Amino acid sequence: MAKTSNLENHDQEKVAVVMVPLPAQGHLNQLLHLSRLISAYHLPLHYVGTTTHTRQAKIRVQGWDPHSISIIHFHEFSTPSYEIPPPNPQSSTKFPSQLMPSFHATCHLRDPITSLLRELARCNKRVIVIYDSLIAWLLRDAPSIANVECYSFRSISALNIHSLALDFAGKSIDANLPSIQGCFTQEFLEFSRVQTEFRELVNSGDLYNSCYEIEGLYLDLLAKEKPVSHKQWAVGPLNPVILYDKKDSNKRHKCLEWLDKQEPNSVIFVSFGTTTSLSDKEIKELAMGLEQSKQRFIWVLRDADKGDIFTGDIRKVELPKGYEERVKGRGLIVRDWAPQLEILGHLSTGGFMSHCGWNSCMESISMGVPIIAWPMHSDQPRNAFLVTDVLKIGIVLKDWALRDELVTSVIVKECVKRLMDSVEGDKMRQRAIELSKSVVDGGGSGKEMDSFIAHITR
Question: Taking CA atoms, which of 109, 135, 217, 441 is between 20 and 30 Å from 264?
Answer without folding.
Answer: 441
